[in-house]
Structures are given as structure tokens and as C-alpha cells.
Amino acid sequence: TSPLHYDEYENLLAQVRGRKELILFPPEDLPRLHYRPRPKGVLRYEWPDRFTREPIGEEAAATRVVFAGSVNLTHPTASEREDLSRCSPMRCTLQPGETLYLPAYWHHEVYSHAAHVPSGSRLVATDDTLSSLNVAVNFWFRNETQPPLAYP
């Protein structure tokens, strides 16, 4: 799952296993999506199976920021509900084998749903968290698309 955000790049999202539900908003909805700066975290991968989070100190919090919507789409406040009522959301569900083209600057929130790994599968799960999977591949690519509004 990823909260409401946009990417500055064109994107092809290919679903391999499980499914994804997306709520999409066109770029013009930006003023009503309550974007706020947030500290940008760093997750490091160490071969073969370890992830660590880099702590976000005060200096990093001030200099490494990402802009993301602060609206909780499933439980908006009264004022957020009013703003959302003037938006033009679309919903999309991606199944395995399907690919979605997501233009640059389109806002999206993503919910991932795992596909259960059947018993007898050649995939060996060593941990309960690996017993069901959601696998997707993103292909981001630069282009000359400019944001239609003043984006943060």
C-alpha cells in the first residue's frame, strides 16, 4: 500500500501476482488533495535478506522532503470530504498479467492485495509473511511532460 502521491515520470505498472487497487486523480485536482512536505526516509537493502531504515534526523527532515497528500481517502475529515467531492477520481483494479499506464503528475493511492501461495508450490516460504505475495513491476521513464499547475 502506498499513500496518495504523484510521480514526475511516466509509469507502466505491471501486475505479476496478487492484485492492486488504485484510486487515481488527474493533475488538476492538486489544490484539493492537501499535499504537505514530509521527511523522506531511506531504506537500505543488505544482501541477502536484510533491510534497515536510516534514521531521519532534524537536518535530514529539513532538507530531504517528499510531497504527498495528507488526505486519508478512506476516512477523510469534513473539510477534506468537501474538497474531495470536487475532485474527479477514477478507480482501477489490476489483476496478474495486466499493465496500467500512469501519466506523470497523476495522483494515486495504491492498495496491494496478496495472492495466497498454494500448498505444494515450488516457492518455499520460510516465514508467515512470505506465505502470500503481491508482486508488481514499475517501469518509470522520463519525458518532457510539464506539470499543468505549480507543483510542489
From TrEMBL:
Superkingdom to which the source organism belongs: Eukaryota
Protein name (record): JmjC domain-containing protein
Classification via InterPro entries: Cupin_8 (IPR041667), JmjC_dom (IPR003347), RmlC-like_jellyroll (IPR014710)
Occurrences of domain JmjC (ranges): 1-152
SUPFAM superfamilies: Clavaminate synthase-like
Organism ancestry: Eukaryota, Haptista, Haptophyta, Prymnesiophyceae, Prymnesiales
Pfam families the UniProt entry points to: Cupin_8
